[in-house]
Amino acid sequence: MSKVIRIGTRESQLAVWQATTVKELLHANGYDAELVYIKSEGDTDQQTPLYEIGVQGIFTKALDIALLNGDIDIAVHSMKDVPTMMAKGIVQAAVLPRASHKDIFVPKSDAAARNIQERDSNASLVIATSSIRRKAQWLNRYPNDTIENLRGNVNTRLQKVSDSNWQGAIFAAAGLERIGLRPENAIELDWMLPAPAQGAIIVVCGENDQYSLAACANFHDEHTAICTHIERDFLRALLGGCATPISAYARIEEGQIIFEGNILSTDGKQKKEISKQIAIDDAAGLGYAAARNYCKTGAGNTGGHTQWKIRHIY
Length: 314
Description:
This protein is an alpha/beta fold. The chain has helices at residues 13-28, 41-44, 50-53, 61-68, 110-117, 132-141, 154-163, 173-178, 210-216, 222-237, 286-296, and strands at residues 4-9, 32-37, 74-78, 90-95, 103-107, 126-128, 146-148, 168-172, 187-188, 201-206, 246-253, 256-264, 271-279, 309-313.
């Protein structure tokens, strides 16, 4: 029996783009679908820094409630916003192919872009982000800078950069690129490790909803699912959330999983990195294994795990 699949989404331009993409994928596979708009706490409070709100799940909770109440059939999220432990009764239905995992710096002006690219090592600049992970990595690299809080959806944040006296702000490349708002003078931060699952989109549904599970299986991307699962396991094993400066990125190259992770102090003064390369067939549990090895090592000590590359930076 066919039915119209109700897709829950937040109202921001990016969230609607993501949900519309899923709607089009469903249509392409012969399923009818419609969007249902729902506000989240993260949308209504755009002033408080995310790390002060108790942020994990702040952008997904309202959609979870709608899903469990039967008001929608599936929900679409930026995967990095989804808690590593999903609400009871909700399961992953599909992961879409990953877009860019990178962070980018959006300068206020071309002059600000030059200030960033040609900066003196002793320069003290003002940049903005609401992410404690981005803040910690930026201060680790540029300890003299000042970080201002920046909240709101993508469009709101871009406008705040334009109206501010900051040099610019840090954004996820994927978000801006998906809705055609990446500025030409944006600077890719190749040295900044992303949030776990950054650039990926996840579709979730009720655990017993076989119709939605079957519909979404048509566009599930297994390689993205494997990599983001490793990254989120690493985050979960370290008991991290959006309020903890934990980063992770896994990619597949020639049948190998290449994993990188790090954790920093919130002021950016301490940093510890871990990396590993392993055959994809042996990758089960890699995220948890990385976290265990990470926790076993003391400063300057690899704990005898020679297959892991671990660096401590103070």
